[in-house]
Design goal:
Layout lengths: L1 E8 L3 H17 L4 E9 L6 E9 L3 H10 L1 H5 L2 E9 L5 H4 L5 H5 L3
Antiparallel strand pairs: 1-3, 1-4, 2-3
């Protein structure tokens, strides 16, 4: 099953993120769930990290929650709000060759 994990940072998160980013990255490399997509959420200007997003494949919601709660960012209190929802993939242009290219999305030509 797929689960979307959407985490929004505490207002004072930047120094906490910085202090725990290496441990967070190491944790993701050995995660007990399959990470499908993961990365930081940014503000609209793309200048500040405001949270984290994970799309994980797990056997159950409990396994997705355990993955999230084992993350060093969770343990350090980086995130203010965490929402976990089961996700049903209906479309994926990455495998079909469709969709816009990253350069088109960013305005780079």
């Amino acid at each position: 099953m797929l689960f979307a994990i959407h985490c929004l940072d505490q207002p004072d998160a930047p120094p906490l993120r910085q202090a725990h980013v290496k441990a967070h990255q190491a944790y993701l490399k050995q995660a007990g769930v399959r990470l499908v997509v993961a990365g930081p959420l940014e503000d609209d200007a793309g200048t500040a990290v405001i949270g984290s997003f994970f799309l994980v494949e797990a056997f159950s919601r409990a396994e997705a929650e355990a993955f999230n709660q084992g993350d060093p960012f969770f343990k350090a209190g980086v995130w203010q709000r965490i929402d976990i929802s089961r996700f049903s993939k209906r479309w994926d242009n990455r495998t079909a060759g469709g969709g816009r290219k990253a350069s088109e999305e960013s305005g780079i030509t």
